[in-house]
Amino acid sequence: MGVHMPPTMRRAVEVLIPVGLTAAVFFVIVVANSFLMARGSYSYGFSLWYAFVLRPDILGTMVLTATVTMLYVWFGRGSGRPRL
User: Fold this and answer.
1) 69 near 14, Cβ under 8 Å?
2) Dihedral sign, Cα of residue 26, residue 27, residue 32, residue 37
């Protein structure tokens, strides 16, 4: 039993979830790395991550990667290829 939503909204959610997960993984890596630096702290790691994620080229790369992956899996379902 799932939530009923239009196909376009479902595709948007399928793109936004991987983008959020990618940003979360990168957050953990940057904040953990900031603790290893001499003058590093949680707030420095957070501000570094926030500045990085808000860059248009990084955000565009995350969205483009998620979109291409979703489309590849979606079109692959219709053919005789195995599912991912």
Assistant:
1) no
2) positive
Quickly tell me which residue has 């376009």 as its tokens: 8
Name the token pair of 42: 């949680």
* Cβ contact 81:67 at 8 Å: no
Shortest CA distance to 73 belongs to which of 4, 14, 12, 9? 14
Specify the DSSP class assigned to residue 82.
Answer: P
Q: What is the pLDDT of residues 14-41, one digit of tens each?
A: 888 888 888 999 999 988 888 888 777 8
d(CA 4, CA 44): 41
Query: Is the whole model's pTM more than 0.85, yes or no?
Result: no
CA distance 41 to 35: 6
Structure tokens at 53: 């994620």
Are 43 and 35 contacting, i.e. CB atoms less than 8 angstroms apart? no
